[in-house]
Structures are given as C-alpha cells and as structure tokens.
Amino acid sequence: MTIGMTRGVTLDGLEGVVVDVEADVSPGLPSFTVTGLADATVGEARDRIRAAASNAEVPLPARRLTVNLSPAWRPKAGSAFDLPMIVALLAATGALPPGVRDVVHLGELSLDGQIKAVRGVLPSVAAAVAAGHRRVIVPAANLREASLVEGADVRGARSLRDVVAFHRGSRTLPEPTDVDDDAIAWAGPDLADVVGQREARFALEVAAAGRHHVFFVGPPGAGKTMLAERLPGLLPALPTEQALEVTAIESIMSLDAAPLGLRRRPPYRAMHHGATMAAMVGGGTGRPSPGAVTAAHRGVLFLDEGPEFQTHVLNALRQPLESGVVTVGRSKATVTFPARFQLVLAANPCPCGRAVGKALACECTPLQRRNYFGKLSGPLLDRIDLQLTVPAVSRLELFDGASEATEQVAARVAQARACAEERGGPAGWAVNSEVPSRALREGPWCLPATARVSLDRALERGALTLRGYDRVTRVAWTIADLAGHHSPTRDDVDQALSLRGAAGVPA
Description:
By secondary structure, the chain is α/β, with parallel strands linked by helices.
C-alpha cells in the first residue's frame, strides 16, 4: 500500500482554498486519525466514512488509517471533506487508481454511501479552477450550481458507488446540461398595489435609479413595508459578474443546499428587530460567518421598526454603508465580507405610532418620542440619502386607483441608470451613489453655482454635514437622470434637498 491523495476545498469567508487530502494505510491497531486543523464536523467524518465504505462494498481495512489535510496550518471545516477523504483512503489501499490526485472532490456521505449536497459549491469550484484543477466531482444536487463556473469540467455523483465506478472506468457520471438564469422578469408584489403615497413612490423610484438608501417614517398601515417589498422589482437584473457574487453568497449561506441557477434578481432581506450583531453583520464563534448585510449584497436590506433594533446593531451598519464591505474580527481569524446593499429603514413616528396626522390620539410624551428615535444615531441617519414622512392614506386616495405598475416605473429606472452609467462608466461608477466626493466638486459632476444655492445655504447654517451635502448632490443627479436633464437644475437640487427632510424625527 502507498500514500493516496486527492483534493478538496475549504472556505475562508467567501473564498475557497484548495486543500491536498493525503491518506496513509499502515499496519497497526485499527484507528482513524485526521490531522490538519480540522473542526468537529470533519473529525466526525471518520464514522460516516467507515459505514459508507462498507455499505458501498469498498470496505476499508482494519488497519491504522491516517488522513492529513494540507496545508496543516489552515483551519478546515465542513462536511464536504467526506468524499475526498474516502477517495484518498481508497487510493491508498489500491482500490482506486493514482489519477484521483488530479481531481477535486466535494460532498458529504450518508451512512448508506449516498452523496449529499453541501454548501459553498460555487465558490469552491471557482477556487479549484483558479488553482488549475479543472476536473471536479460534486454531489448531483449541486451539479447545476457548479456548472456556472467557466472552465470547470464538473461531474455530478449520487453515491460513493458511482464515484468508485467512474474512477475505475466502468461508469460515466452525468455532465451538466445548459444552465438557464433564474427568471429575470419580476414576479414579486406590484407597485400598483400601493395606495396613494405619491411622494414616497417617487422617492422609491429615485432610490432605485441611483441606489440610494431611504428612511420612511409613518403611522402603522401607511404602506412603509409595502414600499420596501416592491423596491427589488424596480431594480434592473444583475450583470453576470455581480450575479455570480450573489449566487456564491447564497450558496454559502443557504440552509438547504438546493440546486441553484444564476441569480440575476437582486436579493431582498428583511430582518426582525431582535437581530443580534452576529446576525446583522456576521460573526459567531471560531471563524466568522456572513450576516444579513452580506446576504443582501447587491440587493435590498429592509429594517422595519428601526428604533426597536439594538442601538449597537444599527450603528454597526455605518461602516458597510460607507465602504461596501464589513470586516469581522475574532481571536482566531479576521474576515472581510462584501456588503454593498441598499438600506430601507422604516419607523413609526412614536412608540404608539399615532403622532403623524392624529396628534390628538397620540399618548406618548415628548420624552418618550425623543428616547424612541434616540436609538437612531445622527451618524447613521447622515448616511441615508432619502428621509421622508409617509402619511396615513386618506379616503380619497383609497379609491383613486391611479398607481403605476412596477413594470412602468422599472422602465424609467433602467433608462436613468443607463444615463448614469454612460456618464460614470468609464471611471467605474455604474450608479450615482458610487460617485466619490472629490468628483462631485470638480469637472462635469460639479453642480453650477446657480443650481446649488439652497444646498450651499443648508450647509452654511448647519442643516447639512459635508457628507449630507454630497449625498444630496448625488440624489440631484439621479433626479436629473429621471427627468432627462443634461445636468441637475435648481429645481432638481431643491427636490433632492426636500427628500432629505427631517422625516418626522424629533430634534
């Protein structure tokens, strides 16, 4: 007997790292040792592997079995190492040819030898191809997902018997068929369902066109949640590179490793106000896991009842809102996750929710209102471009029936985004919210002095910070794109300034 070897992949955050899986079968008392900084999931594979090998009629000898996962200094986690470990052991016993060393294997074994789906197949296969290993065997349930990686020669296996027969040359494994994108047409709730709220609907359109953050304040039943749920339908389909990012994140975070197609639709995540810091930005013991801000990457993150969230959880959003990434540090590892999401924050005007339009019915004291909104820090609100009040719907609006459908508004959004990309694309700015501050004050992005009169006054009297000044400027460009203007007019700037109002937040 000799050393058997094949390859697997471990995930470091959202990046895959190819691991050499070496196996040795030597004389001695029966034992099974796994080395190479493996976690409990990998260590528990010993019993699964023995049972699966026996039930697949390729039993392992009653000898001293040693599996090493190299490089030994890098932590290994996940049940996807089950398949490469058994393949390396069978190669060490001579049951499989040495050629398995050139193949990457991913998959979890059941006791009867079936191969179960695992998370993170897309980034794992991408890492294997990037490292020069094109031949990959994955669980059959993950075959569609794995085939999204360009240049990969992937096969799907349902059982250990299939893998053994394939390497012996007596059976073929299924190849991927043509992979279609997920449905690009929006099939979610329609904006036409929203009654009234003309200003809020326009703000949602502006938010979609420029990828701006938005904060709605209004009484219960005004339509804040309905508006947030319809924002993804206004966003254009993701380009291929971004769609691969979103699909890879879903592959890693999905509780059920279901077959995935390329996710062209921007994701939507709505968090409950009881969310912890780890659930929001990522964390956990050991190596950090991604949170909601990463799950909403390239899409929408909706936080209803904003003041009910823990203050430190809300403040943790400040960094990713500004930089588009979040860095989570633990004693054993520090991982950076992508987090370029679009925030929609919603809140009642006071704890009882009746302060707007029904002041006589509100039972909250001024102190209660101040404490309620005190959880929303000034630096967090300063990063939200659009802040407006959503009033209660009147009886006349209820039967108006003049709301535009999602398809109509999405067409205007697409046209405005095309204008923004034509203007900023050569510099790498696809939407107005990505234009850096320096560019807003020089060259073609600088607003004419006549257009920014109200904006300059707001800055001088302290109603705006410099960050707020730049965010209003970006919103003004988005409004100009929607209106078909070559550059923002004074009316565009004033409208952008009005959309960044006090939003009912008590001073």
